């Protein structure tokens, strides 16, 4: 038993352990276990409030205790959905994913839909990200299919396909000038 549990339960040497004291002790032990589970989960990666609560409940923590634990960690700044969403969206963006895929992944990780959409608006434009993935000498159809699978919008796909169709490869432009 940790010192914190002993202090929060108000235990002392020689104290008679009556029902109210035992209830308090049990509550503090559950709270300590919840914090331990949360600490192990957060040691591996930042989690959203919803994802952390789910982890706690999977570990057998009562939902009221899980809620209180998440609230306390949020107040302490150890759980922050904005931070989680921003970091995850930036990584997905850098790895070549479109807005729809990023939003879906964020929501899948427990980020609220509004925050996910707001976070995506802070990223470089989807068109810029799509252009960075395009090989000008590549097959237009395959490029558009790949971007579509990665969650880029139909408008972005049209822009990219139009730019690829309108701009012949450099070696063809030079050959036409001869």
Description of the molecule:
The chain starts with a helix and ends with a helix. It has eleven helices and no strands. The longest helix has 26 residues, at 19-44. Helix 3 (49-58) packs antiparallel against helix 4 (63-75) and helix 5 (81-94) crosses helix 7 (113-120). It is mainly alpha-helical and 178 residues long. It has three domains: 3-75, no CATH class; 80-123, Arc Repressor Mutant, subunit A (Orthogonal Bundle), CATH 1.10.10; 125-178, no CATH class. The chain is rod-shaped and about 80 Å long. It is 71% helix and 0% strand.
Which properties best describe this structure?
single chain; Arc Repressor Mutant, subunit A; disordered C terminus; mainly alpha
Topology:
Blueprint: H1 3-9, H2 19-44, H3 49-58, H4 63-75, H5 81-94, H6 99-108, H7 113-120, H8 126-133, H9 140-149, H10 154-166, H11 170-177
Write a compact overview of the structure shown:
Helices cover 71% and strands 0% of the residues. The protein is mainly α.
Gap between N and C termini: 85 Å
Provide the succession of SSEs. Answer: HHHHHHHHHHH
Number of helices: 11
Which residue ranges are poorly predicted, with pLDDT under 50 across at least 5 consecutive positions?
Answer: 171-178
Radius of gyration over all CA atoms, rounded: 26 Å
Structural class: mainly alpha
Which whole number gives the mean pLDDT?
A: 84
Q: How many structural domains are formed by the residues?
A: 3
Largest sheet: none
């Amino acid at each position: 038993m940790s010192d914190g549990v002993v202090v929060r339960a108000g235990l002392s040497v020689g104290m008679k352990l009556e029902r109210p004291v035992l209830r308090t002790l049990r509550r503090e032990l559950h709270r300590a276990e919840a914090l331990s589970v949360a600490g192990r989960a957060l040691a591996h990666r930042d989690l959203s409030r919803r994802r952390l609560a789910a982890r706690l409940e999977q570990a057998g923590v009562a939902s009221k205790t899980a809620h209180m634990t998440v609230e306390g960690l949020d107040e302490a700044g150890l759980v922050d959905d904005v931070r989680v969403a921003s970091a995850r969206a930036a990584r997905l963006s850098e790895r070549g994913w479109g807005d729809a895929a990023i939003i879906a992944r964020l929501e899948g990780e427990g980020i609220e839909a509004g925050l996910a959409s707001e976070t995506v608006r802070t990223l470089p434009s989807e068109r810029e990200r799509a252009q960075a993935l395009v090989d000008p000498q590549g097959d237009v159809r395959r490029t558009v299919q790949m971007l579509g699978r990665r969650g880029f919008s139909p408008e972005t796909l049209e822009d990219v396909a139009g730019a690829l169709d309108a701009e012949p490869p450099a070696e063809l432009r030079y050959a036409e000038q001869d």
